[in-house]
Amino acid sequence: MGPAVAMAIAPYIMGASLVTGIAGTAMQAESSAQSASYMAQVAANNQKIANQNAQMALEQGTVAQEQAKEKTGAQIAQERAAYAAMGIDPNSGSPLDVRSSTSELGQLNANTIKYNSHVQAWNDLNQAASAGAQSSLYSSQEGWNMAGSVISGIGNISSKWLSWQTMAGGTGAGAGAAGNPLGSSYNDYYALNSSGGAG
Q1: How far apart are CA 70 and CA 49, in angstroms?
Q2: Considering the entire predicted model, what is its pTM?
Q3: Of 50-59, 65-74, 83-92, 162-171, where does mean pLDDT reach its minimum?
Q4: What's the CA gap between 45 and 37, in Å, rounded?
Q5: Residue ranges covered by each domain of the chain
Q6: Handedness of CA 94, 100, 105, 106 (dihedral sign)
Q7: How far is CA 128 from the centre of its chain?
Q8: Cα separation of 167 and 193, whole Å?
């Protein structure tokens, strides 16, 4: 294959290389975008679960608090009945003090249950907020990966194109044997072909 023929098919080879480069860049960008999209969905699911856990903690806390109050009420009723069975007035003196202590301890227990449920819900909500921020970050990264891969691919393709142009002697006027490693026959060949001459 002579230099003229090689130079004739060089643009087609370069074109094929550019197409391959663009396709590879697109595939890489799509893969990165899909990965970021998956991670964003995982984080969004974690956010949803954490919010559900927070709501569940509050609901369970409310139920446990009511159960604690009922248990305290039942205990006070038993104490009153026990004192009455012994012929002691349950509404005065020591029996009343005992009932008051039982009521106070029961209220403290109910308040502790409520506090713990709110702490758990608060922690769950913080986890939900963190997962939401991660989801947003991954969603943004999806676009960044796509744009970055495309820009990087364009840069690589442009670099290849400029390298080929340099090898070919450039497109400016006066590009001859000094700028063309293959000599003036390359420029002469394309000059003839562009004007409809011999090929």
Answers
A1: 31
A2: 0.56
A3: 162-171
A4: 12
A5: 3-167+180-194
A6: positive
A7: 13
A8: 19
